[in-house]
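To close the section, here is one more complete example, presented without commentary so you can practise reading it yourself. The ligand is nicotinamide-adenine-dinucleotide.
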Amino acid sequence: MKMQDKVAIITGSAAGIGKEIAITYAREGAKVVIADMNKAAAEATAQELRDGGGQAMSVAMDVTDEAAVNAGVDEVVKAWGGVDVLVSNAGIQIVHPLQDFTLAEWKKLLAIHLDGAFLTSKACLPHMYKSGRGGSVIFMGSVHSKEASMLKAPYVTAKHGLIGLCKVIAKEGAEHGVRANVICPGFVRTALVEKQIPEQAKTLGISEAEVIKDVMLKETVDGEFTTVQDVAEVALLFASFPSNALTGQSLVVSHGWFMQ
Ligand code: NAD
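Output:
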């Protein structure tokens, strides 16, 4: 067990990539917190993990709401005594050409990805610093933390921004044994991506099959989607790595779409 009794808060973990990270951490012995704005789905996921023999609780948390983030983290600390791992994963996607984005859409997307990462880090870091056990902060970036695509101005901006925030936390957290890293997945077939396929087909005037083959997977080495399990393996590596040697990094898991 690589995470025995470590308390891990994972935002946006009622579904998709976050849920698979929760399953993986629970299998490795962690006490997993399903933190999601969809409270019913969060509790259903937590129940699923408990039914499978894991340790899990749910908290209702909109990551853009400072009071909700602080209340959720307080609830976890009260129940389980601290926080060892934060995975800031909650995210959405909105696709348009830049000139068609409203300011409200821009602000909403930046708030979920960037305010969410800031607020959850701000709430969790003092507990990691105080425990003397160190900790691990993990941001869910994307290949779009490194690379641009058309139609995704706020998403690409936010995902690049997470790398800057991660590097600051890596520097500030080092003396407390707190590491910070970013996972940068390629396309994973979750609800977030399923929604984009018809939208991009419409905007680009091509078929949905062409969106998958010629847009999403075009630059991969083998035409394959990245899976939730692939991403969860990287999340496990970052959470369980034993020293400050692996900090301030961003790791791309994308079937070679982006190579560095
Ligand atoms: P998803 O839509 O399957 O799941 C997202 C989860 O986040 C949902 O449970 C939703 O309720 C929750 N959520 C949304 N807004 C929230 C908020 N304000 N507060 C709390 N919870 C909120 O999405 P996914 O594909 O699993 O994406 C998870 C993360 O991975 C996102 O940050 C996304 O940008 C990133 N990512 C996804 C892909 C991909 O191809 N799917 C690729 C790279 C990066």
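Once you have examined the tokens, check your reading against these statements. The chain has eight helices and seven strands. The chain has a mean pLDDT of 97.
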